Structures are given as C-alpha cells and as structure tokens.
Amino acid sequence: xxxxxxxxxxxxxxxxxxxxxxxxxxxxxxxxxxxxxxxxxxxxxxxxxxxxxxxxxxxxxxxxxxxxxxxxxxxxxxxxxxxxxxxxxxxxxxxxxxxxxxxxxxxxxxxxxxxxxxxxxxxxxxxxxxxxxxxxxxxxxxxxxxxxxxxxxxxxxxxxxxxxxxxxxxxxxxxxxxxxxxxxxxxxxxxxxxxxxxxxxxxxxxxxx
Length: 209
What we know:
The chain is 10% helix and 44% strand. It is mostly beta strands. The chain has a 15-stranded antiparallel beta sheet. A hairpin with a 5-residue loop joins strand 5 (81-85) and strand 6 (91-96). The model has no long low-confidence stretch (mean pLDDT 88).
C-alpha cells in the first residue's frame, strides 16, 4: 500500500511536531492544511505522497480528528481508496471501487488481527444498499450471502474452501430459508439437493456424474 492510514499518521505527526519552521516542514512533506475561516479549526489535509507535484490524498478533518480520507493510489486522477474513521479516529472501514470508476462500491472491515474479516458490496454503489456480504479468515474467502433481487433479504448463500467454491444455496420461494443447494468439487458440480425439511436437512439429492 503506497498510502492510506500510514500516510495520514505521517501527516498528523508532521503537523504536531514542534518544528521551528512548521510551514517549511509541511511544504517539504507535501502537506497542505485548510482551516475554517470562521472557527480556525482544521478542515482538510491534502498530501502529495510521491512529490510529483499533484495532490493524491485528501483527508477531511474535524480539528485534529480525521473523518474520511480519499486516495488516488495510481495517479490516474481518480480516487480509488476511501478510508472512514470513527469518533475515536480509529480506522473503521476501507472503501474501494471494483469498477475503477472513481466511486466506491465495496467496503472492507478488519478483524482484531488487522486482516480483512468482511467485505460489503453494493451492486449500485450505494453503501446504504448492500447486497453482498463476504466473510474471510486466515485462508481467504470462506462464505458469502447475497440479496440477488434487491428486496432487502438474503436469498443466496455461498461457501468456499481454500478459495474454491464449495456450495451455493438458493431461497427460491423467498421464505428466508434455502430450498436448493448445489455442491461442487474441484470446480465441478457434483450434487443438487432440494426439499429442505424442518430439521434443516435436504430430503432429495441428485448426484452428478
């Protein structure tokens, strides 16, 4: 990662340092602060992280507290990483664009170990309308739920093993429970199960050879 929360930490450290010429230090670091004309509070920090003469990092501030950071990591003029902070200035989630169109459509959340634990995805690019939830552990992607018809309810469940799709279940009558499950092995469909009973077991199974 070329920039991000690490860059923000460097920015804040530089601004807080007891330097005899703070404006010179900021200029050398490529940092430009903007203050509220009425209150004098810090509103935004911008950063030229690679010193190529172009701003590539924008952090909205509430005084000393970061609110959101936007980063153009590849220098193409479009933001491709968004960092969101909570009221304690702790990184809450990281947004990114699967379409690489300058708009976030997926957001990653870290677990206690600092690694990605969950990714929320919106097919419409609206973080208020998430329609896919992916879950990760140390092996990678392990499960996902999806709202395929946009009605606000999960109707598709995926499971993965070692990064490979293991099963897909569908709620075809929209009662909140899976009705049909496809099972895969080595990337090939090996079984179709239907007729989920009250105990949570499928009563019908077709083996695919």
